[in-house]
Specification:
This protein is α/β, with parallel strands linked by helices and 152 residues long. It has a domain of 103 residues: Rossmann fold. It contains six helices and five strands, in the order βαβααβαβαβα. Helix 1 links the parallel strand 1 and strand 2.
Length: 152
């Protein structure tokens, strides 16, 4: 297989994406990463800015969610592997939706979260092929599945 396409979904308040991308690059892994828009304000405002303002918050958010879904759906559908990170600071309902969507499409799903979230995410974890606690474990999984070799 040539280049592996990995979609990095979920929590936007820490540097977990950068860690995975940098470690993968340093190992020379043939991986192309993609992600949702991680600029929180842009993600919230894109629908109303592009398509016209809304006075009702429901419709404001609805427009933004739909515009963002164009990117999210497209990139998840193209991905070979979907990694979904759940942080402990906020509830990432959109990340849970991405995990479910990826699972419904039969994508290889890796979930990344702290052990304290095991119970609330039990259904998401059950759909995953791997549940990691650290970004470095995701990199180790990528290294293993790409090269088929296990470092002991």
């Amino acid at each position: 297989m040539g280049t592996w396409r990995v979609y990095l979904s979920g929590e936007i308040h820490t540097d977990w994406r950068e860690t995975i991308m940098e470690q993968s690059k340093s190992l020379g892994l043939p991986v192309e990463f993609s992600a949702p828009v991680t600029d929180h304000a842009a993600s919230d405002d894109c629908g109303a800015v592009i398509l016209g303002d809304e006075s009702n918050k429901f419709w404001y958010d609805n427009k933004g969610a739909k515009v963002n879904a164009i990117r999210t759906r497209t990139l998840i559908e193209k991905a070979d592997i979907v990694v979904v990170r759940f942080g402990d600071k906020y509830k990432q309902w959109n990340a849970a939706f991405d995990a479910g969507y990826a699972s419904a499409l039969g994508k290889s799903l890796i979930v990344l979260h702290d052990p304290s979230l095991t119970h609330p995410l039990k259904e998401v974890d059950a759909a995953a092929l791997a549940v990691a606690e650290k970004p470095s474990q995701v990199v180790d999984i990528l290294k293993y599945v790409i090269h088929g070799q296990l470092d002991r």
